[in-house]
Design goal:
Layout lengths: L1 H19 L12 H6 L21 E3 L6 E2 L15 E4 L7 E8 L6 E8 L5 E2 L9 E2 L19 E11 L11 H10 L1 E12 L1
Parallel strand pairs: 2-9
Antiparallel strand pairs: 1-3, 3-6, 4-5, 4-8, 5-7, 8-9
Length: 201
């Protein structure tokens, strides 16, 4: 009989141990509904106090050719030397103006095309035109407008058209040359979009 009582006592102690999970007299409390919700699987909420960061689309610039390919010859000195139509999207909401710069990466001292203070509501430029109200700087041909790409015969040059989203207008009375305008745009730029191309002759 004593052996049976000992066995029962051991079984009871084991059950109590499983329930209490402690030998100091404390017992586990049932979780509250809030505690259950906090650890529910599948929750993707960030920890309390962490900000949710939304990724915006990058500023994009579109030309009549795919970026990284050869320019259509009609926009070069061997064609009609027209300025190309351009379009862009996804500019930052703080944009107060746009600017455009065409550079020859193999002849960086040559000014092809510099425009600033394009109205922030404008998202396209038509072929062979400059945006109304924008400031067009003098190019290396001593003209205010587009100087068509024209690398030396037997060579291939790489070019970039860069669209600047600006946080403020450029003071074109103070900064009127192409180089000074580019410098000022770099000081107030929010984001840039580029279209790269090559031309061989």
């Amino acid at each position: 009989m004593s052996s049976l009582r000992s066995t029962i006592a051991i079984a009871v102690c084991a059950a109590v141990a499983l329930v209490s999970c402690s030998t100091d007299g404390r017992t586990m409390q049932e979780p509250t509904p809030n505690q259950i919700a906090a650890v529910s699987p599948g929750s993707t909420l960030p920890p309390e106090g962490d900000a949710v960061i939304e990724q915006s689309d990058p500023l994009t610039l579109t030309a009549p050719w795919a970026s990284g390919t050869a320019i259509d010859p009609r926009y070069t000195c061997d064609g009609e030397a027209l300025s190309p139509p351009l379009a862009w999207s996804s500019a930052p909401s703080e944009t107060k103006a746009f600017g455009i710069v065409l550079t020859d990466r193999d002849k960086t001292d040559y000014i092809h095309w510099v425009i600033t203070n394009i109205d922030p509501t404008v998202t396209t430029i038509s072929e062979n035109t400059n945006p109304t109200g924008a400031y067009v700087a003098e190019n290396s041909e001593k003209k205010r407008g587009y100087a068509a790409p024209c690398p030396p015969d037997g060579s291939t040059h790489s070019f970039s058209i860069t669209l600047y989203a600006l946080s403020s207008l450029v003071d074109t009375q103070k900064y009127s040359t192409a180089s000074s305008i580019i410098e000022q745009m770099n000081s107030v730029v929010l984001e840039v979009g580029t279209n790269d191309f090559t031309y061989s002759r």
